[in-house]
Design a protein that fits this description.
By secondary structure, this protein is an all-alpha fold. The protein is built from 26 helices and no strands.
Length: 519
């Protein structure tokens, strides 16, 4: 037992620890034929000490073998050296080892702490910061090192403190991270860059819904949620705007208020008029009091056409004709020109101006069956005696509905109830007669399964309802994913400590310190 003192091992318990340490070390660093001479010589020294002939050279041999061992085995060995109180490290190394093993140890003086070159992974600095509870004390250079390996919970803590930002891009430089961890870190720091499949793998509902909204997948939106309200607003439902405003960011709220403010005069900034995803909302908010000038631009041409259609549904044919006349000499797309001529022909039909109808429908073309049917209807009307002609209106339009609307009965009942509130009895009778005529014509067409007697407009409903592209301009910026880890101080400290311990190899001595050189 006394012989072990030459190797700096004092006491029976310490001897047992060292024997286990040396046995494990020989297993961890095999002496095969590929081993270099230094390792082979170190193994000889270790075996000699185990066989009962301890020597001061044991410390150097252990150091040589640890330099070839895994970081995990190095950490395990250094913990055993600390437990056995072995004087194998320099006084500086012993102080640093004590600080790593005992979290309650007073903070080391600046002169004792490892320099950046002595702490290449930044583990010792991170351990000290965790012990002091002040992660904010870490330098930028240390931060650049620890993002590569620090426990995820520690990274989350640093993200919350604002010390780790997207500029560090930790998802790129963590070799041990799996796809889920990389996606998680990106979601925490750069959420807008997370792909939909990654968001689904993370179970990140908010991001999945964000992607669904931008892709137009209505069925995946939470009813009444922010994205559902945005979808409805984009379809022209102005009734949801107050509720929507409560769910938007400040910048989006200001943009929405600018949208609503422009509706008072029908004037908006050019950037809004160029964003077609806003068109249906702008059109729903703006109720013109005079004919719109379609020459002002594409949006105004679209809104003028919608306004003419609305006036037709209101049976205000005089104003509808005035609005349609504003398109004269205005260059518009071919599909819009077809709708203008069709609406104009319908207005002329209400005044029984069949010659004008034929003239307007001649330019509609042959590519729309409804357009050909309208033209055939007018030509048949021309050859029919005036007293034998049917009423010129489309009964669906008479009810203020698009052609072939499935819910026409509800609309009919609603209008009948409204007619009872008319003050003039003769006006009420005329209104009831008009509504009943429309109802009977629809019922007759339904029984005969023949709607060829109705003038159809619009030819293409899509011209009046352009594709409801998502209101990306009002969509909230996707916020970072909420933290999903909890910082377990003890577990984090163990992980960081084990990473820092191999950095103490350089403080190993060639031989044990003498008893009178203890700290």
């Amino acid at each position: 037992m006394r012989a072990w003192r030459r190797a700096g091992v004092f006491g029976a318990e310490a001897v047992q620890r060292v024997e286990r340490l040396l046995t494990d070390l020989l297993k961890a660093v095999p002496g095969d034929s590929d081993a270099d001479a230094t390792v082979a010589a170190a193994r000889v020294v270790v075996r000699t000490n185990l066989e009962g002939e301890p020597t001061p050279q044991l410390v150097g041999a252990v150091h040589a073998l640890l330099c070839e061992a895994s970081p995990e085995h190095v950490a395990q060995t250094l913990l055993a050296i600390h437990a056995a109180h072995l004087p194998w490290l320099s006084p500086l190394g012993t102080q640093r080892l004590e600080a790593l093993v005992d979290p309650s140890c007073p903070p080391l003086a600046v002169a004792v702490r490892p320099s950046l070159s002595e702490d290449p992974a930044g583990a010792f600095a991170l351990h000290a910061a965790l012990c002091s509870g002040d992660l904010g004390e870490l330098s930028d250079r240390t931060m650049q090192r620890i993002v590569h390996w620090a426990p995820l919970a520690v990274l989350d803590e640093l993200i919350d403190l604002g010390r780790v930002t997207a500029a560090y891009a930790p998802w790129r430089y963590r070799p041990d991270a799996d796809d889920d961890e990389r996606a998680y870190l990106r979601a925490r720091l750069e959420p807008e860059a997370v792909e939909e499949m990654q968001a689904r793998a993370l179970g990140w509902r908010e991001a999945v819904e964000h992607h669904a909204f931008l892709a137009g997948r209505v069925e995946e939106l939470t009813p009444g949620g922010c994205y559902d309200l945005l979808r409805r607003a984009g379809e022209g439902d102005s009734a949801v705007l107050d509720e929507l405003e409560a769910n938007l960011t400040r910048d989006a709220v200001l943009e929405l208020r600018a949208v609503k403010g422009g509706a008072l005069s029908g004037n908006w900034p050019t950037r809004m008029l160029q964003d077609r995803s806003l068109w249906r909302l702008l059109a729903a908010l703006w109720e013109p009091s005079v004919p719109i000038n379609p020459a002002r631009g594409p949006f105004y041409a679209y809104r003028a056409l919608c306004y003419a259609h609305t006036l037709i549904l209101r049976r205000d044919f005089t104003k509808a004709a005035a609005q349609l006349e504003r398109f004269k000499d205005v260059e518009v797309a071919a599909e819009m020109k077809r709708e203008i001529n069709t609406m104009h022909a319908y207005v002329a039909l209400q005044g029984d101006d069949l010659g004008r109808c034929v003239e307007l429908l001649a330019s509609v073309g042959e590519d729309f069956p409804a357009g050909r049917a309208n033209r055939d209807l007018i030509l048949a009307r021309v050859s029919t005696l005036r007293n034998e002609r049917q009423h010129p209106s489309n009964p669906y339009l008479e009810l203020g509905l698009p052609h072939y609307h499935p819910d026409w009965k509800s609309r009919y009942r609603e209008l009948r109830r409204a007619s009872r509130r008319l003050a003039d009895e003769s006006a009420e009778r005329a209104e009831v007669a008009r509504l009943n005529r429309a109802m009977k014509r629809i019922e007759e067409a339904t029984r005969a399964d023949d709607w060829s007697g109705f003038f159809v407009l619009p030819l293409d409903p899509g011209v009046l309802t352009p594709s409801a592209a998502p209101l990306a301009v009002l969509a909230p910026v996707l916020p970072p994913l909420v933290r999903r880890t909890a910082l377990d101080d003890a577990d984090a400290l163990r992980t960081v400590r084990d990473r820092a311990l191999p950095g103490l190899l350089d403080t190993f001595l060639a031989a044990p310190r003498r008893p009178d050189h203890q700290i």
